[in-house]
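User: Predict the complex.
Assistant: Input components as received:
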Amino acid sequence: MLRRFVLPLFTLLAVAAVIYAVLFTVLVKWERDGVPLVYRLGGALNQKGGNSWQKFQEYDPHAPVDLLFIGSSHAYRGYDPRIFARHGNTSFNLGTSAQSPLNTRAIIRHVVDPKAVKLLVIDVYEGAFATDGLESTADLTQNCSSDAAATEMVWHLKDPRGLNMLALRHLRRDAPAMYRDSAYVEAGFSQRTDSLKTVAHTAPMPPVQSAQRRHFQAMLKQCHARSMRVVLVDHPKPSTADRERHAQWAEWVRTEAEHYGIPFIDLAFDHGLPIHDLHHFYDHNHLNQAGVELFNARLIDELERRGLLGPSSAR
Amino acid sequence: MLFNSLQFALFFPLVALLHWLLPFRLRWPLLLAASYYFYMQWRIDYALLLVVSTVIDYAASLGIARNEDPAARKRWLLLSIASNLGILFFFKYFNFLNDSFRGLFAQAGWAYAVPDLDVLLPMGISFYTFQTLSYTIDVYRGHIQPTRHFGRFALYVTFFPQLVAGPIERAPSLLPQFFRERSYDHARTIAGLKQMLWGFFKKLVIADRCAVVVDEVFNHPGQHDGASILLATFLFALQIYGDFSGYSDIAIGGARVLGYDLMQNFRTPYGATSISAFWSKWHISLSTWFRDYLYIPLGGNRVIRWRWYFNLAVVFLVSGLWHGANWTFVIWGALHGLYLILALVCAPFWKRFDAATGLARMPRLKQALNVAVTFALVLLTWTVFRANRVGDLPVLFKAMWNMQPSLALTVIPVVQLGILSVTTLLAVLFFLVDGRVDRWAKGERPWGARWKEYGFCGALLAFILIFGHFGGTAFIYFQF
């Protein structure tokens, strides 16, 4: 058995590994017009840079904050640390593009220091649960500050492309960022001030993936085990979004949250705010700065009402 | 279940391991259960169609064998043909014909109220219905004795490596293998695994990479220039070959690992020197099926000349329709039929042409020219095959006809230059080495030295990891 299968298999894998390493290194090191050839292959190999890179450069996991926001683009475009600072609270936003529970789970585990965060605010946009996590893993493997987090994401992704992502991360470790996000402000937040000019068209969302549900459950369990204070929030949606589907979604989130005694603040529709589709969104589901101002003020009230956000230590 | 999925990467080794660990009498139940599991990963309810096909053909074959009376035998045969083709018609062609009639009626200004059927096309339906049909016809013709073992017959119908996209196996070749005990053969296993690896390379590195460019151009034909369309057609030729022959290699290699031999389905078709040679190298299991069960019963070439042409035309029209319920496939089949008829009609002219130009004395040059012309003709038909609808054809051909000698391809801004160049480079490389590597991978050529074998397989693995286009893209022929 050993001689017939295991040894030939190891020999083959060793040969493949050598060829892979040589070829991949050549593709990474060989640049044309300042861009390594590897980026011309297409397929889930993101360039280093953008707001994900900027925020992980800025974020100090051991610096104490009152609130840490995390989640998909709804998070990093919807929770403005400057507004919370006006209210006297320190905060940081670790939301990134298309971040799914698979990715959030790894970031919380390997990047976030529970002792430095008073309240972890997890945005639970349903769309982030409807992805397989590939897009976010491609982004975070190049931009996240933790090797362990990047490796865990790739492990959970179970996609051969993950190997290329990790190899690229390793080979481009000392390379500078290739681009910056002009909408990035500070503390992980990206600001948009333009507004939607026409009626929000909400495209049908694919179904939530069961694997993402499992990652979400594991993430809540992990937070509970590390005695982290957590709150789940769903931020305002345009009036054209599917209310019935959201009600089912919110019910599931509430059930999962209750299991660990975690509060869920659902402000998707019943927020009591004068939020208007045309003036407070910059696309079909992201708030613009005018919308963020209204939503964040409402969230602060709600957090205070629930006793989750007391007078700040910073005040 | 897709071959190019993580699920299959776990499923196949487990089945292979269990297969060789179990005693012979338990192997067929294992493979039958595995085959149904494999199919039901797509849709559970449509597995019922497999059961129906199996039961009808099992009963029909026994009915034929038990009856001496020719009329009764014919009735059993007709039952099998009608039920198999009936299922095929219901699921694959009803909505197509209904839609065509609706269009005709609308043009005439008449009302047409027959609604479409709300059904999905069962995966691989054309493959397994043709396979079971050939069994009953072979029994009727007395070529084989029907099996009384229902389980092993059911396995013949559903054997998972070739269930959804062939090769379309004949009973005399595959069925007896399920009755014959084989002991584990390590060399066969390794050969099978190598062929599977080559198949994965063709699918993930060649076919799926080409698909990115091909889909962009053919899904928006009006937005691209002639050069882009020509390039996309060339890439489609490689995509469909890589996709389908890749599937066949995985199927044949997988069956080999389990100890069974499936027929060859491709023999470097783009090296064919004529359209007729192309069809003896492309989807061999289907072309021989049509030869044996349609062309020869129609009279083949042992009839008067016009009837011979008619037979060819019928076979290729049906072959086009077999590929899909769309007029593009019918036109594609018709074009191939026309090519063959024209080749026969013009044969004396070409003979005189070769003699007059001296080509007859330069066999290598003649062969190269023939390969190039045949490939160009096939390429032309692939444009029709890949077009989403007949209405796209004038747009595609007009753009190619008005092509300007420029490298400013419109496909470039849409699909990044890098992806396009890497894809084209890999595709051309594959095109150049395919024939030789194909024979290596299938074990038809010796490797010479062990290090070459490790080097080749290691390079394939590395190429798949770096250049592979992952994301669970289905095989093109599943839809047929």
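The radius of gyration of chain B is 23 Å.
Let me know if you want any component modeled separately.
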